[in-house]
Specification:
single chain, 443 residues, alpha/beta, Rossmann fold, seven-stranded mixed beta sheet, 17 helices, globular, binds NADPH dihydro-nicotinamide-adenine-dinucleotide phosphate, binds (2Z)-2-iminopentanedioic acid
Length: 443
């Protein structure tokens, strides 16, 4: 398999789609051996087929603000691959959203969903709408207008969206409400729903919990645990929150959280009441990081990233390409032993290369943050059965899924020296299942 040739062709076809091309290259580079050992994939042009989305929907989303002014945003749904199940993946509302970012996320989702062992294909969607600073009624009108178009392509057995950056319980509620009005159906068409209207216990915490469960498995391979470890976390959204809760529960000290404008360092540790305080701010749509520094008297490091802090474990939980080569150097120099990605593709290729070269424990998002979508899958199961599982039942299943994903990475990613390359392991394990299904189905 000639990765450079495939990438050249793909670059010509998708000019300027930097994030999408970055995500594809990473996967292709790690599956070269497996593709060469299985000529049936090349013979059937599986690579050329897997990098092309099944369908890309782009639509206009007009909405009125509280003053009666009309705005127009752009909506998307990328239905990337349905070989192993209905399309499944989140919706992102953020001003930076564009086709490249959603295609990278949709492509990653194929392999992530495959790793969960649940029957889910890969998709992603969203809009360049910014929910920040908008009133509830503005967000509601936007979501309703967005669903007017999205309803045409989703369904509980065809495509099941969920949340991502900027899309949490409130947005899912408004989207689902409109879906129900339009279809007269009460089905599990969206996940991340509220508990009173079809949601699953533990879904809000699931991505962060799953990330920590995965890191726990990695640490175990070196006879280490979270107990007494110092943890640096970026972001303070849905994923960072769950990761902080679970890391603290396992006896670690979380010393940072961050926003796009900087981070706070709390040497005493962020836990208990401090986490509750941040949740209150989040619920009322306020900034979290800077107010935290005033409330608890710690320094806000303006324009800086948390990776300069001395830590044993780093959990990047904010956004793509937020941890670059310089950051990786600092983490390694400060003795960090484990980097486990809660966000999607937060480490740049240069950073990933350094982590692997130094043989530290490094897990890519598509393995480490799969607990979110896995629990979405569990929400779909509960919706289909019209039954609700207890928090313990969902959490136990989530934990087991993360242990199994870790085992798949070890199986496919261990090199001759015994080092586990989790990037390779995750990509190979995720790819094999989908590629074989594509062959079987003639996709
Ligand atoms: P949220 O919207 O809940 O939170 C995003 C957080 O990241 C916010 O605290 C935001 O701060 C912060 N942030 C945004 N940009 C930057 C930046 N450049 N530097 C530092 N912080 C930043 O999103 P999620 O927690 O849901 O998503 C976070 C990541 O996890 C994304 O990569 C997402 O794709 C991924 N993910 C999410 C899953 C889920 O179930 N929600 C599942 C798997 C992966 P602010 O609000 O101030 O902008
Ligand atoms: O990136 C992700 O895996 C998510 N945003 C969650 C997707 C989902 O369908 O739960």
């Amino acid at each position: 398999m000639n990765v450079d040739k495939i990438m050249n062709d793909l670059t010509k076809k998708n000019p300027g789609e930097v994030e999408f091309l970055q995500a594809v290259r990473e996967v292709l580079e790690s599956i070269v051996d497996v593709v060469e050992a299985n000529p049936q994939f090349d013979e059937a042009s599986i690579i050329e087929r897997i990098v092309e989305p099944d369908r890309v929907l782009m639509f206009k989303v007009p909405w009125a603000d509280d003053n009666g002014n009309i705005h127009v945003n752009r909506g998307f749904r990328i239905q990337f691959n349905q070989a192993i199940g209905p399309y499944k993946g989140g919706l992102r509302f953020h001003p930076s959203v564009n086709l490249s970012i959603l295609k990278f996320l949709g492509f990653e989702q194929i392999f992530k969903n495959s790793l969960t062992s649940l029957p889910m294909g890969g998709a992603k969607g969203g809009s360049d709408f910014n929910p920040k600073g908008k009133s509830n009624t503005e967000v509601m009108r936007f979501c309703q207008s967005f669903m007017m178009e999205l309803v045409k392509v989703i369904g509980p057995e065809t495509d099941v969206p969920a949340g991502d950056i900027g899309v949490g319980g409130r947005e899912i509620g408004f989207l689902y409400g409109m879906y129900k009005r339009l279809t007269h159906e009460h089905t599990g068409v969206l996940t991340g729903k509220g508990l009173n209207w079809g949601g699953s216990l533990v879904r809000p915490e699931a991505t962060g919990y799953g990330c920590v469960y995965f890191a726990k498995e990695m640490l175990k391979t070196r006879n280490e645990t979270f107990k007494g470890k110092t943890v640096a976390i970026s972001g303070f959204g849905n994923v960072a929150w769950g990761a902080a809760l679970k890391a603290v529960e396992l006896g670690a000290k979380v010393v940072t959280i961050s926003g796009p404008d900087g981070y706070i360092y709390d040497p005493e540790g962020i836990s208990g009441k401090k986490i509750d305080y941040m949740l209150e701010l989040r619920a009322s749509n306020q900034d979290i990081v800077r107010p935290y520094s005033y409330e608890f008297g710690v320094e806000f490091h303006e324009g800086k990233k948390p990776w300069e802090v001395k830590c044993d474990i780093a959990l990047p939980c904010a956004t793509q390409n937020e941890l670059d080569g310089e950051d990786a150097k600092k983490l390694i120099a400060n003795g960090c032993i484990c980097v486990c990605e809660g966000a999607n593709m937060p480490s740049t290729p240069e950073a990933v290369e350094m982590f692997i070269e130094k043989k530290i424990l490094f897990a890519p998002g598509k393995a480490a943050n799969a607990g979110g979508v896995a629990t979405s899958g569990l929400e779909m199961s509960q919706n289909s059965m019209k039954l609700n599982w207890s928090a313990k039942e969902v959490d136990d299943r989530l934990h087991e899924i993360m242990i199994n994903i870790h085992a798949s990475c070890v199986m496919h990613g261990t090199d001759a020296s015994g080092y586990v390359n989790y990037v390779k392991g995750a990509n190979v394990a995720g790819f094999l299942k989908v590629a074989n299904a594509m062959l079987d189905l003639g996709f």
